[in-house]
Amino acid sequence: MSNDRSDDNSNKDKNLGKEIDVSKIDLERMKTQVSSLPSMLDYAHGRSSALIKPEDEGKIKSRALRAMEEQTGREFNQILKQMKPLVEQIEKLKKRVYISESIYTAYIPFEPAIGTIYYLYKKSDGSSILSIVSPEEWGRSMPYESFEGKVKLLADHTWDVVDDEEEKYSEDIIDS
């Protein structure tokens, strides 16, 4: 019977596999290989886990940079559109100041009437003259060096530079 027992023990050994020597196991190292929150790992935590590929950091930054440039470019263009009328107003105001200064230093052979259109010319000696005659009326026989601008005396005795488009618009309003 003793033989039967030894056969039973050898069968048990075969079924159980190799004996584990716990003293040889590095428990500290094993702690670093196990996670209490596997979903927070940036790699697969088991053989059956889904494959996790790290993203190319350069691609991520490149996409973010493009998105930022597109957004700021849109905002920049919007601000430029908003500024355009202001820049146009500034240019108009600069021209008005220049023309007004030229008129105040110009020779005026008559008393200007409020609401009347006049024409400012530059003479060959550099001085200016205000006239009631338009460049079209002078034709080729214009006696002045250059035409500086079409102006209108306002009620507050300031001068406004008149564009042909503005004049037509104001005539249309009056006619209505």
**Percent of residues in helices:** 40-55%
Beta-sheet strand percentage? 5-15%
Query: How confident is the prediction overall: mean pLDDT?
Result: 81
Number of strands: 4
Number of helices: 5
Morphology call = rod-shaped
Query: Largest sheet, described in full?
Result: 4 strands, antiparallel
Question: What does this molecule look like?
Answer:
The structure is a single chain. With 176 residues, the chain is α+β, with helices and mostly antiparallel strands. The chain has a domain at 81-175. Helices cover 49% and strands 12% of the residues. The chain has five helices and four strands, in the order αααββαββα. The chain has helices at 2-16, 27-32, 57-105, 135-138, 164-175; strands spanning 117-122, 128-131, 146-153, 159-161. It has a four-stranded antiparallel β-sheet, with helices on one face. The longest helix is centred in the middle third of the chain and has 49 residues, at 57-105. The protein is rod-shaped and about 125 Å long. The mean pLDDT is 81.
What characteristics describe this protein?
rod-shaped, 5 helices, 4-stranded antiparallel beta sheet, alpha+beta, 176 residues
